[in-house]
Amino acid sequence: MTAIERLWEDFELPIRDALHFADGGSYDVDLDSDEPSGLRVLAPFGLDEILEIDPSWVSSVDGLAAVDLGSKGLLWGGEGSYGSEGFIARLTVDRALIWAMFFTESNPFDRIQLSGNIATFSSTSGFEITVDIDDPRTLISGPEANRTM
After folding, report:
1. pLDDT by residue (tens digit) across 12-64?
2. pLDDT tier at 88 (50, 70, 90 boundaries)?
């Protein structure tokens, strides 16, 4: 079991603007209103090393919005332990993690719109993140990525 899967069992995510996959891959992310998707996926990093330095640097997450994908699982968005935090995630049917993103300054995500494989997660402060639900590293452009800030 990977470090992120262990955290997810307790509905916790590291306090770092990052994308995490259940297989253990983690990437820094940056909210960026100039990007069609609303974010930039940056360099990979080792989550195990980060947690070794400070294993308590995690936030509890709680969902505020969900989209049922039937046999393909669930999209979930919500809040962290502090008011400025938000997260978005894709889960399996049994709520195991496929991938999750955490943001320290997005505010909670409380709306999700789905069109095919493209989902737009909207936060209470107006941030919109548009991702391919199969691989959120995929660059999104065109009308499916239109958003307002």
Report:
1. 999 999 999 999 999 999 999 999 999 999 999 999 999 999 999 999 999 99
2. very high
Domain boundaries, position 77: 3-145
Domain count, the chain: 1
For residue 66, CA distances in Å to 44, 77, 95 come to 27, 6, 12
By DSSP bridging, strand 58-60 and strand 12-14 are antiparallel
Q: Return the exposure string of 48-64: e unless at least 16 CB atoms fall within 10 Å of the residue's CB, then b.
A: eebbeeeeeebbebebb
Cα separation, 144 vs 55, in Å, equals 38
Tokens for 59?
């936030």
Which strands form 109-115's sheet, in the order they lie side by side?
Answer: 109-115, 118-123, 128-132
Tokens standing for residue 133? 């639900």
